[in-house]
Write a structure and sequence with these properties.
This protein has about 250 residues and is an alpha/beta fold. The chain contains 9 helices and 10 strands.
């Protein structure tokens, strides 16, 4: 029975060699891959517009991100359009941030557009949902020498702002939970462009149908976090003093 044992070992070795060969031939260099990390959704002329931003890893290209945009009925139907606008192999859509325009927030149940991200296990559901006071196209077309790529910058300002309670850091999964929790008011962070810079504006409050209701300033957001007992250390609250304002020039 030795020949049976030797034959079995030979088959196992062959399978291992074939597997290694297959992995080697199917590899993709990082410079040749496209990994979309930022998604934008907005409504223009009553049509859904999408915007996608992906980092560029090539040393020969000065601009460190590449953007794509288009019209689509949903995220799944826009996949082929996105692939056609990016070179190389397009990897999984593990978005870090999802920017939503206020025009889209006027529609009831707009959140259902993101349903495909929950159905596909390859997609992440920890994307930060961010509202923008203005067109989403301005955010994705924004260029500044003193700011990092948009996908890195947006996540950074939301995370830093949430730590000092000037905004909230709400993921897609968390927003989904808030929309179905009657004891909570759905809230997402809000940004805008001011003086040729992207800045954190505060917090956007939504209805049960994810519609826009109102915006909170930094201080109002801090008070909201205090009421929810979710405020972090280092909160700064400022109130005007009438008598002091009259004496100080």
């Amino acid at each position: 029975m030795k020949w049976v044992k030797k034959t079995g070992i030979f088959i196992v070795v062959c399978i291992g060699v074939c597997s290694i060969t297959g992995c080697g031939s199917g590899k993709t260099n990082l410079e040749d891959a496209t990994v979309p990390l930022a998604l934008g959704l907005d409504v223009e002329d009553q049509k859904l517009h999408y915007y996608v931003s992906a980092p560029v890893f090539s040393k020969d290209i000065q601009k460190k991100s590449r953007e794509a945009q288009g019209l689509a009925e949903g995220l799944r139907s826009s996949k082929n359009q996105q692939d056609a606008q990016f070179p190389g192999s397009v990897g999984g859509r593990n978005f870090q941030v999802i920017v939503v325009g206020k025009e889209l927030l006027k529609y009831k149940d707009w959140f259902k557009v993101l349903d495909v991200t929950f159905r596909d296990p390859r997609n992440t559901i920890t994307d930060r949902i961010i509202a923008v006071d203005g067109p989403v196209s301005d955010i994705f077309n924004f260029q500044s020498k003193d700011q990092p790529p948009i996908l890195m910058f947006l996540k950074a300002i939301v995370e830093s702002g949430s730590k000092i309670s000037t905004t909230v850091s709400t993921t897609a999964q968390e927003l989904h939970r808030q929309l179905y929790d009657r004891a909570m008011t759905p809230a997402i962070s809000e940004i805008k462009i001011e003086n040729n810079k992207i800045i954190l504006k505060g917090t956007t409050l939504l209805s049960r149908q994810a519609q826009y209701r109102t915006s909170l300033t930094y201080q109002e957001t801090s008070l909201l976090q205090i009421l929810k007992r979710e405020a972090g250390p280092g909160i700064s609250l400022t109130y005007p003093v009438d008598k002091l304002q009259q004496t100080v020039p």
